[in-house]
Structure formats: C-alpha cells, structure tokens
Amino acid sequence: MSNTLIDVVVTSREDQGAGVAIFELSPVARESLPAYKAGAHIDIHVNSELVRQYSLCTTPVKEGTYRVGILNDPNSRGGSRQIHVDFKVGSTLRISAPRNHFELTVNSERTILAGGGIGITPLIAMAYELQAKNKPFELHYCTRTRGAGAFAGELQSAFPGQIYFHYDDEDHSQLLNPEEALSPCVTGTHIYVCGPTGFMDWVINSAKSLGYPSAQVHFEYFSAEVDNSGAGFEVYCAQSELTVAVQEQQSIVKALEGAGVKIDVSCEEGVCGTCITDVLEGEPDHRDHFLTEEEKADNDQMALCCSRAKSSRLVLDL
Ligand code: FES
Q1: Long-range CB contacts (< 8 A, 24+ apart) of 137-140?
Q2: Predicted local distance difference test score (pLDDT) of residue 1
Q3: Is 40 in the pocket of ligand 1 (CB under 6 A)?
Q4: Measured from the CB, is residue 120 less than 6 Å from ligand 1?
Q5: For residue 233, which of 5, 256, 266, 284 sits 20 to 30 Å off, Cα-Cα?
Q6: What is the number of the ligand 1 atom nearest to the C-alpha of 305?
Q7: Could you tell me the distance, in angstroms and rounded to a whole number, from the CA of residue 186 to the centre of ligand 1?
Q8: Which residues of the chain are modeled with pLDDT < 50?
Q9: Could you give the C-alpha distances from 58 to 105, 160, 299, in angstroms and in order?
Q10: CB of 277 closer than 6 angstroms to any ligand 1 atom
C-alpha cells in the first residue's frame, strides 16, 4: 500500500441537518484520484498532528472526485470540529489513498445495510455499487429524529423501495425492528452495519441471536470507549531491546512514548488499525474493534492504543 499523500481541494461543501457537512474533494494536480471500492475510507490530515478517517460516499455521477460526510461531533477530540471550521470551498488538504477494511461482497444473494447516524456514509457507497450491479439490497437508515438525517433526500430519490428510514424519538412504528429487518437468516444474506457503538452492538447481537454466522455480519466502528483498566504489565521492544513498564490506566502507546518510542496513531480508540503491531511473545488482552475475532485469537498482533496484556510481559516487534 502506498503511503504517498494526495493533495486535494474542496470543490463543494454542503451543510445539511444535524451538524453534517458534505465535502467534495478533487485532485489539485491534473492527475486522477485512485479508484476505490465501496466501504473504503481515506485519512484526512486535519493538521500536522491530527489524522482522522472518513468513509467515501461518492455518487456514481461524480466519479473522479471523493465525497465525505463529516459530523461536527460535540464529543469530538478536535478533528471534526476543526474540519467544520476550516474547510471551505477552495481549501486544500492532504489525504491518504483509500483503504478498505469494510469490503462489500457484491455477489451476495441479498444484502442488508444498516446505518446509524453518520454511519450511513460507507453504506451509501455500498448501495450505489449494489444498484449498479443490479443486486438486491435494503438500506436501513436510523436517526434520532426525522430532521437529523443527512443525505435523506438523496437516498429517497436514489433508492426508492429499498431505503427504509427509522426515527428513534418520533413515531414508534418507525423504529428499526432488527428481527423484522434481518429475518430470515439464510446463507447468502450478508449484513453490513455502521454507526454509534451502542447501535452497532445492538444490530450485531440481534443478527447473532437470529443465527447469522460472523462471516455474514460485517461492521466498521467509527469510535469506541477505551477501557484502560487492569493491572500494569511489561512490554519488551525486541528490535530496540528496550523494556517499558505499562502502568494501570496507561496505554501501551503512552508508556512507549514516555520511553522515547513513537508509535503512529490516529483514532486512539481501537477502530482504525493504525497502531497495529506484531506480537512476538505473550498474550494480549484485545480491546480494539478493528481486528477480527480470528485475528485476535491468533495473538500475533495487537492495537497498542487500547489493548492490554493478559500475560505479565509482551514482546513486541518494535
Ligand atoms: S490508533 Fe486507531 S486502532 Fe490504534
């Protein structure tokens, strides 16, 4: 994967309801932007320190540009707030090439897309791709209130008969009923979920209780609470031959930073994968939402921003 950054310019900004701004990004030079598949995201370098991930949701008619929808999150640690203040039409910024940890299986017999709030963005790209390939799908869009759904008008026009809107605090008949939406569970039906952590856990657990195997349930977390509780432990960096003590309530990243070892991070919440590092010995206590259950079981890599250790010592390939 290329780490080369791409300079882009904001060619359109549309502020929609509930604090969401939709940005269209075009290349500064005359080169074209790398192609991507539905579910991909880009890193946006908000400033020299801050890197944030946003899903791409470009419409087919705007191919050749990238489109992102960004919520001005009141709980933001600075990224989305700064983007909303600073990025206007004509602003230039740096982004990564697209990466995809949330790939769509286009040839599924049936696809159910369930998005909560701004988690709708990767699912928009999936819906367009499924529509282009003439594949059956349903798109469920859950928001707190009727006015809180960015993209709502576009989705209504683009996917009539396939889009279902659900509102939490209005007419309760509009609430998402996972048993109804996800049934029946049959081989060939795949579910894709994105949104706030509580929403995702609810949909994923509902799918499991309906009998969906994990291979048919796909998800991407935007953010997560980090739980740093638990006893301290020791980390040994094999390449630099350095031993570092990780204290209670301290992340491995912070402990290493204190010892002069800088780890690249982005989300610092275990959702983006930037800090994933190979483990040579010891048993991690995985607390991230990035690695799959199978990858976690292998215990040969871990997210250093949030995960801890079950063993008293970890040996890392650093
Ligand atoms: S920095 Fe995002 S998973 Fe660790």
Answers
A1: 137/110, 137/111, 137/112, 137/113, 137/162, 138/111, 138/112, 138/113, 138/162, 138/163, 138/164, 138/181, 139/113, 139/115, 139/163, 139/164, 140/112, 140/113, 140/114, 140/115, 140/164, 140/166, 140/176, 140/181
A2: 45
A3: no
A4: no
A5: 266
A6: 4
A7: 34
A8: 1
A9: 19, 19, 37
A10: no
Q: Which domains occur in the chain, in start order? A: 6-95 (2.40.30.10), 110-221 (3.40.50.80), 233-316 (3.10.20.30)
Q: pLDDT digit string (tens) for 240-253?
A: 999 999 999 999 99
- pLDDT confidence of residue 266: 86
| Per-residue pLDDT reduced to its tens digit, 179-216 | 899 998 899 999 999 999 899 999 999 999 999 999 99
Residue written as token pair 């079981």:
297
Q: Are 150 and 141 in contact (CB under 8 A)?
A: no
pTM for this predicted structure: 0.85
Helix (H/G/I), strand (E/B), else coil: 292: coil
